[in-house]
Amino acid sequence: MTTFTLNRRALLTGTVALGTVGLLAACGGNSSKTETSALSAGDDLSKAVSYNEKDRSALKDGGELRLSADGIGPNFNILNTNGYTAGNLNIQAAINSAFTGGFYADFRGESHMNEDYVTEYKAQTVDGVQTVTFKINPKAAFNDGTPIDVNAVKSYQTIYTAAASGSDYQITPSPIWEQVASVEAVDGDTRHVKVTMSKPWYPIEGSFTSFLHPAFADPKFFNDGLNDKPLDQYWAGP
Fold first, then answer.
1. Domain interval for residue 16
2. 14-69 pLDDT, tens digit each
3. Most buried residue, 140, 179, 186, 187, by CB count within 10 Å?
4. Do residue 119 and residue 18 come from a single domain?
5. Is residue 137 part of a domain?
6. How far apart, in Å, are the Cα atoms of 232 and each of 76, 96, 142, 237?
7. What is the rounded CA–CA span in Å between residue 93 and residue 100?
């Protein structure tokens, strides 16, 4: 039997539907049958895919959606080594829109700017120096009222810089943050963020627009503050 493992990136970008079209796994004992897909090598996979796209306004009110989870908690900090699980990641992706941040993927896997958070975005390399600049929606805030601004980006840099130097953060690695030279507000505007890389990272487009409440910069809170309690006031969204 062939087993396919789906990761969070595949689930969020919609590549599951595309990646499994035409894949047939033969399971069983000594079957002499050979199963093949409807498409041959080199064929256009898009021809085997169809959508019944509907506008959101066509959805009826009410109803209930239930999704399976392979386990949640006990640490609800998804950056923590004890909280980085598939179940916690799927929950955060569904209810903490600050985590998914400034870009989202539609059901085709195409990326779009989420203007609830990011209204402008630009990545460029000038004289060998790679930078990302973006503007945050002035209305964006965490559930406790804390503004989502440059400090919600600096919190990542603070944590990953400290972790790289051997601090006590129980954190999962993030190679891209190890290549960040600075995070700063542009011309004093805390909603206009500039990230400068110490060396280029590719692909860079869409990076750094996931937002983390500044409270997580405290090592004790980062490690233990969300044990057995989600504390959704530090998230954003429903």
1. 8-54
2. 333 333 333 333 344 444 444 445 567 667 777 777 888 888 899 888 988 887 87
3. 140
4. no
5. yes
6. 10, 8, 9, 9
7. 6
